[in-house]
Amino acid sequence: MPAKTLVKIADHELTLSNLDKVFYPATGFTKGQMIDYYIRVAPVLLPHLAGRPVTLKRYPDGADDDFFYQKECPSHRPEWVPTAPVWSEGNNRNINFCLLADTPALVWAANLAALELHTSLSLAVAVATPTMMVFDLDPGPPATIIDCARVALWIKDIFDRYGLTSLPKTSGSKGLQVYVPLNTPTDYDHTKAFARALAQLLEKQHPDRVVSRMTKALRAGKVLVDWSQNDEHKTTVCVYSLRARPTPTVSTPVTWDEVTAAWEKRDAAALTFEAGDVLDRVGQLGDLFAPVLTLKQKLPSL
């Protein structure tokens, strides 16, 4: 029988299992340490989960083993874990996504081996209205996160010219992501078209460095500016989520000064953060990604 531990968080009791199981073999990072990380980072993570449909990316046997995506919130969830129905055209029915509103719900999800948390760009109450726009920068080998830093700075320059704030974070995997807070009435037709046009502009300006098309044959040595994530049916890894990499890296908010310094020094390590690093950064810097939740901005017309 797997080892089980009963814990009480807030007013809820949870039964946690296999806390000693190694989830990151390269470092010995265990499931218990994974859950502990999520408890400690909860004060800054939960505002970014609040009210958003969450897709759980579950790794029952750890980060280097098989995984599956879970959109439908498990039927065996505690009654205090709410759900949000979102219509799926492909399934011709509502999918009831989990809403992780508090620390007990977050710990419950982590205990399901949900190493990664992927969130909608919309709130569940208005799934057709994105509150932000995202550019997912994915390097095609031999390009690296440093090449992504260069492209991210080009994106920043474009939005600076519009007088709009953009915020970078690491994906926690291979690349970077640039978010543009909106929090004003808009729709995905506008944000997706805008993101695509910007990606195509960058590809035209820097054809040797940037690609806007998904075709793998075009991506070697270039950075894909993935605009397609701006879709109400897609989710993107949430800020502060762990990633299933060889070590427990995290999707981490960074400053533009850090991105610039990494690019100038060609220092990929400066844009790689593990769970402990992130907790230290939060203690020193607070939530660098907080403006995404409240800053009101409007995209110009195309």
Keywords:
single chain; 302 residues; alpha+beta; 5-stranded mixed sheet; 4-stranded antiparallel sheet; EC 6.5.1.1; MtLigD_Pol-like; ligase; Non-homologous end-joining DNA ligase; LigD_pol_dom
Walkthrough of the structure:
It is a single chain. The protein is an alpha+beta fold and 302 residues long. 29% of the residues lie in helices and 22% in strands. The protein contains seven helices and 15 strands. The chain has a five-stranded mixed sheet with strand order 11-12-10-14-13. Strand 1 and strand 2 form a beta hairpin. The longest helix is centred in the first third of the chain and has 19 residues. The mean pLDDT is 96.
Computed Rg: 19 Å
Residue windows where pLDDT falls under 50 for at least 5 positions: none
Q: How many β-strand runs?
A: 15
Helix content: 25-40%
Order of helices and strands: EEEEHEEEEHEEHEEHEEEHHH
Query: What gross morphology would you assign?
Result: globular
Number of helices: 7
The end-to-end distance, rounded to whole angstroms, is 59 Å
The side-by-side strand order for the widest beta sheet comes to 11-12-10-14-13
Mean pLDDT over the residues: 96
β-strand amount: 15-25%
Largest sheet: 5 strands, mixed
Instruction: Indicate the structural class.
Output: alpha+beta
Organism: Anaeroselena agilis
Pfam families: LigD_Prim-Pol
Protein name: Non-homologous end-joining DNA ligase
GO molecular function, one term: DNA ligase (ATP) activity
